[in-house]
Design goal:
2 domains, 4-stranded antiparallel beta sheet, Immunoglobulin-like, 2 helices, mainly beta, about 10% helix, 7-stranded mixed beta sheet
């Protein structure tokens, strides 16, 4: 992943280098999608707008320029006048998502990967909810630590901060070979609810 800063409205080269066994691979048909990080909307290359759904052209092809390099020019003037962070998500048909670049438009001064990390950490928790991602995991930990929990019927139940929505349920045991208990708990086993 690269972090690249650009002035607002600049025409930029979206580039991908694809290597296998250390050598550039040509003849592929990689695609790129552009995601705005503020709202996770994707760019529609057909009408030059960001949308949550209903794209006409969400992905576009990159041109093979040789030695494993693929490229496409994109005019960022569609972003308007506000500083914006865009993630370019590259895919190759047989491999799925293979790379991402973070494009910073309108950032004052130079921007380092540490600056980007800080910007991600400072985002609202509601922006980090995708299950299976680091942000989703942190959000789940937050929910467990700030929500209600209760022990009843030999089970421990964790709730979200609303104290109503159940997150997890565990059977409680003194040890693996005993019947469930609430008294001397030394082991737990997650109950998977279908």
């Amino acid at each position: 992943m690269s972090v690249i800063a650009y002035p607002l409205g600049e025409v930029v080269e979206l580039e991908l280098l694809y290597k296998r066994d250390g050598l550039g691979v040509t003849g592929l048909a990689p695609q790129v999608e552009l995601r705005r990080t503020d709202d996770n909307y994707y760019f529609d290359f057909n009408d030059n707008t960001f949308k949550s759904s209903g794209w006409t052209t969400k992905s576009v092809s990159l041109s093979d320029i040789g030695s494993g390099w693929y490229q496409r020019t994109w005019d960022s003037s569609a972003l308007g006048g506000s500083p914006t962070v865009i993630v370019a998500e590259y895919t190759v048909t047989d491999n799925g998502k293979i790379a991402q670049d973070v494009l910073l438009f309108g950032a004052s001064g130079s921007c380092t990967p540490a600056d980007v990390a800080t910007a991600v950490w400072e985002k609202a928790m509601s922006a980090h909810t995708t299950p299976g991602t680091f942000g989703g995991g942190v959000n789940t930990i937050f929910d467990v630590e700030t929500g209600r929990w209760v022990i009843e019927n030999n089970q421990m139940i964790f709730y979200k901060p609303d104290n109503v929505t159940e997150l997890f349920r565990f059977d409680l045991f003194e040890n693996r070979d005993t019947a469930p208990t609430e008294d001397i708990v030394k082991d737990r086993k997650r109950v998977i609810v279908p």
